[in-house]
Amino acid sequence: MYEKEKQSLIDCALELKRCRLITLCGGNVCVRLADGNIAVTPSGLDYEVMTADDICIVDSMGKRVEGHRRPTSDLDAILFIFQKMPGVNATIHTHQPCATALGLIADVFPACLVSQIDALQGDVPVAPFTPSSDKGMGELTVQYANGSNAVILRSHGVMAFGSSLQIALYAAVYLEEAAQTYLTALATGRQVQPLSPEMVKAELGEPDSWANYLQT
Ligand SMILES: [Zn+2]
């Protein structure tokens, strides 16, 4: 079952790899399915060799429904996010270098670029450190999200999410691009001008304008 959905996780992970947001078997991709079960990438398996049979299907409590692999070690955190954020149907966890670097030196990535605002809704919060493979990753993501489509996890990586896998993917990739641009500007030593709340609102436009912009 779920062959199309399982393949979409692998396609997403390979795109993340092409964009250099993940390496080898780092990170994970998870989708809440129409029946409430959750499809998750397995722990410790290179995405290049992953097939649909390797994807794990669990119920909302994490009990195995289908698949023979061990699910991602971040499953407890992912389940917590799905439980507490009913509008979220997909999560992407990465160790993407530029956004993670930014989390080492700042408490927030202030809204200053249009692609950041479009894909992430504005400021991107930085959550304090919590160990990997710990439910705390999910608890801090929910606590710090504040309307953003991603949270930077200090000294670890990024948790991106959205109502669809496409929206979560764009959040992760555009966050990395924006963080690289922001870090490049910071490296000049000159002051970086964030956008005002009015400018952010003007860029955001109508509710759901970003979701309507994306085509499948
Ligand atoms: Zn991680």
TrEMBL record:
Keyword Lyase: yes
A GO cellular-component term linked to this record: cytosol
Domain of life of the organism encoding this protein: Bacteria
Keyword Metal-binding set for record: yes
One matching Pfam family: Aldolase_II
A GO MF term: aldehyde-lyase activity
InterPro entries: Aldolase_class_II_sugar_metab (IPR050197), Aldolase_II/adducin_N (IPR001303), Aldolase_II/adducin_N_sf (IPR036409)
GO BP annotations listed: pentose catabolic process
Annotated keywords: Lyase, Metal-binding
Location of the Class II aldolase/adducin N-terminal domain: 7-183
SUPFAM superfamilies, alphabetized: AraD/HMP-PK domain-like
Name the UniProt record assigns to this protein: Class II aldolase/adducin family protein
Natural source organism: Lawsonibacter hominis
Lineage: Bacteria, Bacillati, Bacillota, Clostridia, Eubacteriales
